[in-house]
């Protein structure tokens, strides 16, 4: 392929200029980072798994009518996406207490929440993505009140879809993070789900055993991350059942 213009390089992905205006190519790296990149590793196969899993979740969202940036998968590590203007927020939805919420409130991890709770962090690596109240978001003009209403509605639809899909394969959706982007159709602005949905950005626990099948395996040194992601992909039918990470992920088309 001809040399492409790199638009942006993040911790786990690279964005390149796409083949047509209004598109990007999203490349999934094998790099894993945690604690705002204080902990780093390269995990062979992670990018391939996340490309395929994000395709699976985004395609499912399209099929239930939730707008998102995914157009098509291009190859093992790349997908074509719609160019969006990212809202500088991490939108986190929690069904059970875990991670930073459990720590902040002194709650036991796994405690069921009375209803899905949505929180927002300001996307800024230098600041460590601080939690921000909605009032800051509106006062600083990162999003309008109407945007926030739409973001909450989108986040809850993603939660219902993802929680159901994961439940169907014996996995509890504890929490997840999404990002939202703006797109314009002529003068009309819409908000759509962007970035990625993968075990890097979700907490996924086996319903029976509580085994963690997400990035906490890396954050907390609980075992082999690619094995955990392969298990999620295998249960969802994204990988054939006889594939282990030792033989490298194989795609089913
Ligand atoms: O760390 P915390 O408990 O706030 O994370 C909540 C959820 O958001 C987890 O599923 C985590 O993987 C995800 N997250 C993320 N990227 C961040 C922060 C959190 O994907 N920068």
UniProtKB/TrEMBL annotation:
- UniProt GO MF annotations: ATP binding; phosphoribosylaminoimidazolesuccinocarboxamide synthase activity
Q: Name one GO biological process term.
A: 'de novo' IMP biosynthetic process
- Hey, which pathway is this one from? Purine metabolism; IMP biosynthesis via de novo pathway; 5-amino-1-(5-phospho-D-ribosyl)imidazole-4-carboxamide from 5-amino-1-(5-phospho-D-ribosyl)imidazole-4-carboxylate: step 1/2
Q: Which InterPro entries match?
A: SAICAR_synt/ADE2_N (IPR028923), SAICAR_synt_PurC (IPR033934), SAICAR_synth (IPR001636), SAICAR_synthetase (IPR050089), SAICAR_synthetase_CS (IPR018236)
Please give the catalytic activity noted in the UniProt record. Answer: 5-amino-1-(5-phospho-D-ribosyl)imidazole-4-carboxylate + L-aspartate + ATP = (2S)-2-[5-amino-1-(5-phospho-beta-D-ribosyl)imidazole-4-carboxamido]succinate + ADP + phosphate + 2 H(+)
Q: Which GO terms describe its cellular component?
A: cytosol
Q: Which Pfam families match?
A: SAICAR_synt
Record keywords, A-Z: ATP-binding, Ligase, Nucleotide-binding, Purine biosynthesis
Show where the SAICAR synthetase/ADE2 N-terminal domain sits: 6-235
- Please verify whether the record's keywords include Nucleotide-binding: yes
Supply the enzyme class, top level: ligase
Enzyme nomenclature, EC number: 6.3.2.6
Indicate the family of this protein.
Belongs to the SAICAR synthetase family.
Task: Extract the HAMAP family matched here.
Answer: SAICAR_synth (MF_00137)
- Name of this chain's protein: Phosphoribosylaminoimidazole-succinocarboxamide synthase
What gene makes this protein?
purC
